[in-house]
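Batch manifest, entry 17 of 40.
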Amino acid sequence: MELNKLLQERETDRNALQFEQRRLVQASERVKNVILVLFLSTKESEIERNARQAEHLSENIQSQTALLEDEKKNLRHLENQVRESKEKLEKVAVELNEVSRQLADAHGDTAESERNRRRNEAIDSLKRVFPDRVYGRLVDLCQPSHRRFQLAVTKV
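Output type: structure tokens
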């Protein structure tokens, strides 16, 4: 009887132990589930934050792409303006050179003709004042014997 009682107590203790072990396993499962839920909620909020950030980056990429295209258009427009301005500048420079050359020619002709006129007037007045002694310019009156002396006669 005592043996039955001891066996029964042993069986009761074993059942109680199994019950407590199941409760422990269930409690640890609940703790795992709570930890998993917390982890998942953290990950979900992180996923949402990353999704918002990705959306923001996508919008930023679109706006930057549009801005880049606008700037490329502006650059092409400015390059065209620079090219046209350079062409106009070249045309104006050519015209300026032509006008400057014509002006220099006109000024040179005027200055040279003015010099010739004064020289001729001086020779004419010398011929009037000294009719017996002045016959004209040396260059007009003589021809050098050799071509190499032409410059010397011109400079006298």
